[in-house]
Amino acid sequence: MQGLFADEPLSDRAARVLVDGLNDMVLDYAIPPGMDGVMRGSRVEVPLRGRGATGTVLCLVPPDDRWRGALRPLRRLVNDEPVVSSTLMDLAEWAARYYAVPVEQMIRCIVPEPVRQERHEEKTRKVAVLTDWPDDEKLNKINARAPRQAHILRYLHQSSAKRAPLAELGGAATLNPCRTLEKLGYIRIEEETVHRDPAGEETFAQSTPLELNEEQAAVLKRVIAATDGGDSRPMLLQGVTGSGKTEVYLQAAQHAMGQGKGVLILVPEISLTPQTMARFKSRFADSPGAVAILHSAMSDGERFDEWHAIRRGQARIAIGPRSALFAPVKNLGLIIVDEEHDGSYKQENSPRYHGRDLAVLRAKMEGAAILLGSATPSLESLQNARSGKYALLRMDRRADGQHLPLTRVLDMRTEAKDKRNLGILSERLRMAIEDRLRKQQQVILLLNRRGFARALQCPDCGHVAQCEHCALPMTYHATENRLVCHLCGFRAIVPRRCPECSSENILLEGYGTQKVEAVLRRCFPQARLQRVDADVTTRKNALRDILSDFRAGKTDILLGTQMIAKGLDFPRVTLVGVLNADLGLNIPDPRAAERTFQLLTQVAGRAGRGELDGEVIIQTYSPQSCAIQFARRHDTDGFAENELGLRQQFDFPPFCHMAVLTIRSPQEDMARFSLETLHKRLLTRLPQHVQISDPLPAPIPRAHGQFRYQCTLRAPGARIIADVVSAEIADMQFGEDIIATLDIDAYSFM
Ligand code: ADP
Ligand code: ZN
Ligand code: ZN
């Protein structure tokens, strides 16, 4: 058959290309002769609408005979080697289906913006290389004639590499003398690529491996065996705070590197954990460039350079938050997920993937070992360990010999009767703060608050209004003046008296950080106080700056939500106060108790890390709750045992998969009506074993000028939810002002 474009050569092969920026539009292009090397994962330039566009090759296809010759040819192969490995392409396709998002969204995560845009060309500089060292007589002659040239030669001779960038030799003024020296045959001028390093000028002192204690040695042995191709199950390392997990990570990484393998290390939000990065940089300081850092606060140029250094295999260890799981590490041998329970591994906008879960999948696809570490593992991982899917490794003793701080639980039901009490601040906590201020030590106050859901709690007995069917706290809806369960839709009237103790004081909880700040300022007018919450931290790097001020001792009291708990490694903090531990418990979220337990345990494990002893004071109306009691005793096993029992009884994760379907619209009627219609259709389409709740206003019913309605789905597997719901959403063809989102394995129910 004659080609439609007569001047274009026929081709036997075509590439199916996911074109950038077209929201999953896939087009076929012929591969012109001579453009070998086009394969799955290649980045290519294609002709599109008279202009060019870039894209990623999804696969190679033999062109359909009818279209043979009609396909337009690819314009250019952007990189010689495919930018996305075949495994990462598989991972992208798998994740796109699992999380019900377009493949392009996943590819976008894999090929970060600066790499995709390609604007960030490599930076180069000129270097002088010594090729011949003149004898004394010649050098003296040069010195007499042109002292500058002699100086350059001596400088190069003394440098260990016998080379130096021109900038170092005296900038632009050295170019001419260098040219002369080059003509005389003493030196050579070369161009060299400069690597833009996010760690910049910072130097890291070499650290040497510590001698491991017995527990650490046993764990390391298992990790090494797995890296070398032993037990292929993911490993869960449950090690108390301070048990020396990081040291094990470092030595495991060193082993993998010694075997010529690459290592990927995932950490929670990296601006909060600069210590981990610094510890890796120090340990591998003797092989500069071996450790690459990837995170969003870096400049585009830095990200471009680090990413390519990893892809080329120059950097063998990649460290970063959630998104770094897609780093193109070569010959991947080991993945480490630090603080694997941390909520920041779940992306809260589309694609809503879970970094830890995809890391486990990637390890399996690449035949790499994976180690998930935490003092307070997620119940998902603990359950996997119980069922034998994961291998459980433990470290129960602190490596640094320090003891855990004293944890006191203050029962606010009785504290509240103390007349000196200031509502949110008990007299005992107030005195403890005053004491630290006098000693010039630092204080962290946590307001364990998530979202804005309001629960009903009795200040006299601590009773919380709960759903009869789900055992989750009910949420107050002001519009209908009812308590509503967000999982099953069960409604109840707001009681006038507490059903437990008949107190009439039963009230809606509601203390924000701003209100607490006002109370604290009144109490401690002389203290330097810094509030940290979403309002304060909208500015980029604001949180990092606040934390570094605190570290430098410029602040006395840090007041904030759980976001400050992660940075908790401050030697001068001797008191951590949890203002109302119940705020995190009384939310309609199956993981509320788990998160509270994790937060309190982590806080308790980190206060008093320096020379000074630490104290933790937890204020609560429910001192008897499991999360608080087990956290006080640092008893992760006891908590897990108890909580897993409840989860199983009420059919919550990890015993099922849960998804949240949300519809947003600037018009309330539209949002409600659309969800109701979708809900009706889903009822008929979903198989029996998928449970779906009634459509309801979301616990945060309005945000960013949009009304939000949602329902939750539960099933033994996530796939069925993703497939059916996304098909129905596509079918409904919503207008532009309606946004439907499906959050598979949701972590937020707000
Ligand atoms: P984790 O990550 O489990 O919280 P770290 O790795 O931060 O614990 O270790 C806590 C402290 O114990 C650190 O100061 C670390 O240097 C020290 N440490 C770790 N392992 C050892 C060891 N084998 N011998 C002595 N000190 C150790
Ligand atoms: Zn009561
Ligand atoms: Zn319910």
The CATH homologous superfamily name of the largest domain equals P-loop containing nucleotide triphosphate hydrolases
What general outline do the C-alpha atoms trace?
globular
What structural class should be given to the helix and strand makeup? alpha/beta
- Identify the bound ligands: adenosine-5'-diphosphate, zinc ion
Strand order of the largest sheet: 11-12-10-13-14-9-15
- Briefly, what CATH class of the largest domain? Alpha Beta
**Per CATH, which architecture of the largest domain?**
3-Layer(aba) Sandwich
**Helicity level, as a percent range?**
25-40%
Mean pLDDT across all amino acids: 85
Major sheet: 7 strands, parallel
Number of helices: 22
Strand content: 15-25%
Number of domains: 5
What value does the Rg take, in angstroms?
30 Å
What key phrases describe this protein's structure?
Rossmann fold; GIY-YIG endonuclease; single chain; 31 strands; 5 domains; alpha/beta; binds adenosine-5'-diphosphate; 6-stranded parallel β-sheet; 22 helices
